[in-house]
Amino acid sequence: MLDLVLPLQCGGCEIPGARWCAGCAKELIVKPDEPHLVTPRLDPGVPVLSLGRYAGARRQAIVAVKERGRVDLIAPLAAALRQGIDNLLTWGILDSPLSVVPAPTRRSAARRRGGDPVTRIARAATATHPGLTVIPALRLKAFTRDSVGLSGADRQRNITGRVRLARSVADSVVVVDDVITTGATVRESVGVLQMCGADVVAVLALAHA
Question: Would residue 147 count as lying in a domain?
Answer without folding.
Answer: yes
